[in-house]
């Protein structure tokens, strides 16, 4: 492979590759001033085909010079050229590179100095900028404080003036209100004085008429209630659900046989000793406002109440339901006679206790007796609706 190192005066020293046919390279590197520093003298060549051989190829430089690509190089340079050996070209290239490195180091130092100066200048500008900003903020805050102070003073002045005006208006308004109230009271007193007799007369007339109408309405209401009660009694009799007397007849028959009831059927604990609680139960208030019944006593039911177990459990039932035992006992004694006054059947299979026809004492007595004798029954509340029994037994 043939290499030719060509230096052209006043030109760069660059690598020039020959055509692929000849496979030659021409190296040109550096700059002319670098060559001058190494005291290289360039003289014009009279004959452009005079070259120094730089390779070991078989082709001579003289032959190579005759080829077109060498001629083209010469024609493109437009000035004399010198052909150097490879060794000499490398020496010159190394010296040029060293010069370049020296220039580069010098350039880097200059750049570092410029950058340092630039950074110092930027730092100074930033410092001055921050100082200016701080000064502007300080001046701004002082101006704001001055404006706020002035504003608050103006607001205080306006508020003071407003309060004075409001106080004046309120004072004037209260005086006007007092005058109007005084005049109104005088007018009202005059009207009341003049109309008092008329009002009294009208009131007496209206009151009398109202009492008469109320009495008439109460009379009609009582009659309607009686009619309603009769209708209910008839309806219950037709349904066969009002057979309380039949159930009590069956209870009386069981008492005559010595059966005083099964108290294990009660849902509450067994009775406590009567001596420890009888006095307290007697003093408890009853939910019923019905006075003790004065109906004749039934001997069988009185016999039931004389039973110790019955008495103790009755006392416990009254205590739990906050009922007066003496009132309940009186109801039990006269229960048979009370039920005999109403229309009842004798079918024990369908028994109904209707709270619209019995007091609380009577309802508790019936429920207690039916429970210990295992008699099934229905309970109707004040509105005539089927409901749960209201007492704990």
UniProtKB/TrEMBL annotation:
- The chain's coiled-coil residues are 207-234
UniProt entry keywords in alphabetical sequence: Coiled coil
The ranges of region (Disordered) come to: 279-298
Q: Where is the composition biased (Low complexity)?
A: 285-298
This protein's name: Uncharacterized protein
Organism expressing this protein natively: Diversispora epigaea
Instruction: Cite the source lineage.
Output: Eukaryota, Fungi, Fungi incertae sedis, Mucoromycota, Glomeromycotina
């Amino acid at each position: 492979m043939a290499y030719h190192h060509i230096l052209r005066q006043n030109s760069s020293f660059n690598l020039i590759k020959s055509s692929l046919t000849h496979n030659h390279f021409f190296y040109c590197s550096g700059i002319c001033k670098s060559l001058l520093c190494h005291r290289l003298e360039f003289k014009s060549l009279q004959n452009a085909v005079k070259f120094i051989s730089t390779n070991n190829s078989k082709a001579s430089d003289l032959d190579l010079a005759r080829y077109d690509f060498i001629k083209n190089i010469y024609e493109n340079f437009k000035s004399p050229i010198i052909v150097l050996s490879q060794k000499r070209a490398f020496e010159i290239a190394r010296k040029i590179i060293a010069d370049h490195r020296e220039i580069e180091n010098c350039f880097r130092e200059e750049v570092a100095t410029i950058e340092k100066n630039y950074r110092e200048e930027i730092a100074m500008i930033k410092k001055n900028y921050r100082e200016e900003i701080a000064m502007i903020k300080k001046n701004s805050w002082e101006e704001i404080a001055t404006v706020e102070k002035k504003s608050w003073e103006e607001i205080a002045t306006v508020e003071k003036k407003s309060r004075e005006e409001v106080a004046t208006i309120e004072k004037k308004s209260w005086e006007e209100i007092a005058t109007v109230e005084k005049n109104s009271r005088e007018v009202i007193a005059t009207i009341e004085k003049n109309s008092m007799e008329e009002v009294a007369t009208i009131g007496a007339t209206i009151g009398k008429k109202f009492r008469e109408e109320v009495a008439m309405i109460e009379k009609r209401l009582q009659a309607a209630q009686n009619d309603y009660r009769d209708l209910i009694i008839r309806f219950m009799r037709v349904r066969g659900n009002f057979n309380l007397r039949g159930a009590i007849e069956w209870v009386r028959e069981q008492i005559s046989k010595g059966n005083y009831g099964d108290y294990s059927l009660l849902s509450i604990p067994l009775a406590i000793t009567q001596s420890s609680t009888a006095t307290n139960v007697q003093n408890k208030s009853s939910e019923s406002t019905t006075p003790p019944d004065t109906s004749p006593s039934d001997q069988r039911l009185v016999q039931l109440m004389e039973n110790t177990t019955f008495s103790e459990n009755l006392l416990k039932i009254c205590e739990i339901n906050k009922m007066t035992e003496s009132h309940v006992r009186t109801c039990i004694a006269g229960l048979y006679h009370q039920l005999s006054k109403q229309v009842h059947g004798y079918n024990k299979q369908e028994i109904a206790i209707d709270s619209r026809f019995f007091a609380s004492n009577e309802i508790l007595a019936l429920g207690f007796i039916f429970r210990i004798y295992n008699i099934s029954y229905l309970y109707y509340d004040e509105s005539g609706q089927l409901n749960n029994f209201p007492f704990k037994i």
